[in-house]
Amino acid sequence: NIPNSVAKIGISAFEGCTSLTSIDIPASVTEIGSGVFGGCSALTSIKVNEDNPIYDSRNNCNAIIETASNTLYSGISSTIIPNSVTGIGADAFNNCTALKTVTLADGCALEFIGNYAFRNCKNLTKLDFTTSLASDSNYIYMSDKITNIGTNAFMNCTGISKIYLNDK
Question: For labeling, which of 6, 52, 104, 106 is most exposed (least CB within 10 Å)?
């Protein structure tokens, strides 16, 4: 449990905490560094207090979303990306070795994927950013709404063999 006295959680603060299973972000936290849960392979629940002025976990998505920008800031293997999210931030799933597929809510229209967003997600075999959820695996399908893919966004994603841009 993070006490209400905490206002800032630094970059990679819990990285590699392989026994961490759940985290509740209190309303007092107004700054969270990137890569905060990288390599937390047992993490199955992320919740942000509904009174937090900066971040949320809308629709019980199991992620931290920066409310003003609709950017998914940190996710885990059981994250469902809400349809209101327009971007995946830097290091959002970095070192998330338990991540196998990325699930988007119907109608999700991502516009950008940040630097190192999926770096070292070695077990990742399917990303479908078109929301059509094709049955193939080992592929990334990009929609034509994505205008920016960050530096090393998919670095060391060795389970991916092909990327399709705007067309299947």
Answer: 106
